[in-house]
Write a structure and sequence with these properties.
The complex is a heterodimer. Chain A has 12 helices and no strands. Chain A has helices spanning 2-13, 15-32, 34-37, 68-104, 106-120, 124-134, 140-166, 170-177, 182-218, 229-239, 249-277, 279-283. In chain B, helix 11 (279-289) packs antiparallel against helix 12. Classes of the chains: A mainly alpha, B mainly alpha. The interface between A and B is large, with 37 and 46 residues.
Chain lengths: 284, 328
């Protein structure tokens, strides 16, 4: 309980982290309960197209006369799901590989580090682009797999260096001398110390995944659901030529602002969490 | 030392070759059968004949075992032959790359140079004068440039400066009514067309450059010899230029390779938005056309560029920093 209270205290006292936290909570609420409060009406009504914001339509209407605000709310679910799955998969592979390299050491470590260095020189976004074209993406999990294909490498490197420095520390040595099981050492001694790094990475990878997924969708690849921010942006830029239409500016700007706000929230919140987990940083 | 680096680069390159070959092989559906059928139908020839032509064009025989296919692919690569486009058989992948690379490299190098010079200058200033107006400005700017991805910056620049204000053209690399060559109108047109893509990359890169330069400069300023220089009453300019910047700039050089990789990755989106005819746009076109051989070639070429950039950065860093030279 104390840690949770501490956590909120840190978030509250750190202005940047608080702003980030509020933004993240806002978007998570939007993606989970939002569609129930603001149901998206898909009825096409061309006589009401490209309306400016009003009380009735908070962000105006799109090229087919649909309400942009409810479209944003409805579309946030897929965007956040892709980010979530990418972060989960990337973290899983990265932690596993990094831990293996750090704990086993020796030849295995050398091979893994060599492999990671190879992956770091692969143009990751191009690879995702090509794979998105070759294999048609059907759902958020597949999209997550696609985006984590090279993203785990730097993470594994980070986990490895954390484990390497931790396993020389006294408390791990003591646990080993006391004859604790490998399982205990990994999950009770090492994990809690890596968790801060993992949490910050989770947020970082997630916000990166949002940018990458919207980018891939903007190119017309991987249209796995009809309504999400990436598809909205695609329609605004390529489909309907909203870029060329001054009245379509709300349709173009809305997904951009939402996406930027979300990544901004991630960035600020991740910085705040860093402060929470690193008391040395906090004191400075 | 350099030999070891070269060896690593070579192994990395070989793995990219295997990866790009395997990627094409793993495409769902039989790519070559479809290609042969299309060819047979278009040219009115028999299927075996179409297969024979495919073998000549793409250096690949779909009926051979996999390792033989791979060997003939590598053989083609060793002759500098990346294959032929699957959609337009008149065009080789080499030609596509030759058409796109000058534009991509032109934009990338100017963007890298600009952000390197300005970013490092700002970074040193921020470290030297702690409470200047630059610090909060750059901190906020850095946060924003983290939150807004490159293609959104490109999109906004396109929307406001090219479409609304019409200060800059919104597509192509130069005005097609001009004759390409070394004349002022043509060069001016090239610069005007390249301005917004370059600005996009510079805006993306400059915040990170400045912040990392600031932190390395701060570390350098803690060194004794800087304190000694200040105590000796040297001119501010000399201290900043010859004592701080000269050392702090070294890690930034390795950062250049990373930034170059970032530009290559972003180029597909940025160049597509500006309709700029670089390799990024060709990559997207090939993806949309499902032109697998062209994709393979472009991907391999991008990997090659990244490997070379990393190699150069590593060697350069070792050359610039005597400490690394002694260590290895």
């Amino acid at each position: 309980m104390r840690t949770i209270r501490d956590f909120f205290w840190i978030i509250w006292s750190n202005k940047k982290a608080f702003v980030g936290f509020v933004i993240l909570v806002f978007f998570i609420l939007m993606a989970t309960v939002g569609p129930r409060i603001f149901p998206f009406n898909t009825t096409v009504n061309f006589s009401a197209r490209y309306q400016p914001p009003s009380w009735h339509h908070w962000l105006g209407t799109d090229y087919a006369g649909r309400d942009i605000w409810t479209e944003i709310v409805y579309g946030s679910r897929d965007v956040l799901l892709v980010a979530f799955w990418t972060a989960v998969i990337t973290l899983f592979i990265g932690t596993l590989v990094g831990m293996l390299a750090g704990l086993i050491g020796g030849f295995v470590d050398q091979v893994i580090v060599a492999l990671i260095n190879l992956i770091l020189t692969i143009p990751g976004f191009s690879l995702s682009l090509i794979l998105a074209a070759v294999f048609s993406i059907q759902n958020a999990v597949e999209f997550g797999l696609l985006l984590s294909i090279t993203a785990w490498a730097p993470l594994a490197l980070g986990v490895r260096s954390q484990v390497l420095s931790l396993r020389e520390r006294e408390f791990v040595t003591i646990a080993r001398i006391m004859g604790m099981s490998k399982f205990h050492i990994i999950f009770k001694e090492l994990m809690p110390n890596v968790i801060s790094f993992l949490t910050v990475s989770f947020i970082g990878v997630g916000s990166g995944a949002i940018q990458a997924s919207v980018g891939i969708m903007l190119l017309g690849l991987a249209p796995f659901s009809a309504t999400n921010w990436g598809e909205m942006l695609t329609m605004a830029v390529q489909g309907t030529g909203g870029v060329f239409n001054p009245r379509g500016v709300y349709y173009l700007i809305s997904p951009i602002v939402c996406m930027s706000l979300f990544t901004l929230g991630c960035f600020l919140f991740a910085n705040g969490i860093d402060d929470f987990f690193n008391p040395r940083l906090r004191r400075q | 030392m350099i030999l070891k680096r070269l060896l690593i680069a070579f192994i990395t390159l070989m793995l990219s070759v295997i990866l790009s070959f395997y990627m094409l092989h793993k495409t769902p559906g039989n790519v070559w059968l479809v290609q042969a059928q299309q060819m047979a139908q278009q040219l009115g020839i028999s299927l075996p004949e179409a297969y024979r032509r495919i073998q000549l064009l793409y250096h690949i025989n779909p009926n051979e075992p996999l390792y033989k296919q791979f060997l003939s692919y590598v053989q083609g690569l060793l002759h500098g032959n990346l294959g032929t486009s699957m959609v337009n058989q008149q065009v080789t992948v080499n030609q596509v790359i030759a058409a796109g690379v000058p534009w991509t490299l032109f934009v990338a190098s100017i963007a890298l140079l600009t952000s390197f010079v300005i970013g490092n200058w700002i970074g040193v200033r921020m470290a030297w004068k702690r409470n200047s107006w630059l610090d909060p400005l750059m901190t906020v700017f850095n946060v924003i440039s983290h939150a807004v991805p490159s293609f959104i910056i490109a999109l906004l620049l396109l929307e406001f400066f090219a479409l609304d204000l019409q200060w800059f053209p919104f597509n192509g690399a130069y005005d097609t009514s001009l004759t390409p060559g070394f004349n002022w109108p043509f060069i001016g047109s090239v610069l005007r067309h390249a301005f917004l893509p370059i600005l996009t990359y510079v805006l993306v890169l400059i915040g990170g450059q400045a912040m990392s330069m600031k932190s390395t400069s701060l570390a350098v300023m803690n060194e004794d010899y800087v304190t000694a220089a200040i105590a000796r009453g040297l001119r501010e300019r000399t201290i900043v230029k010859d004592y701080i910047r000269r050392i702090a700039i070294l890690p930034q050089v390795t950062g250049l390779a990373l930034a170059f990789g970032g530009i290559l990755g972003a180029s597909s989106l940025v160049e597509t938005l500006f309709s700029y005819p670089g390799i990024g746009q060709y990559l997207v076109q090939a993806t949309n056309n499902r032109d697998y051989t062209e994709l393979q070639g472009l991907f391999l070429f991008q990997s090659f560029c990244l490997i070379v950039a990393n190699l150069i950065a590593n060697i350069l860093y070792a050359k610039l920093d005597p400490r690394v030279r002694i260590e290895e």
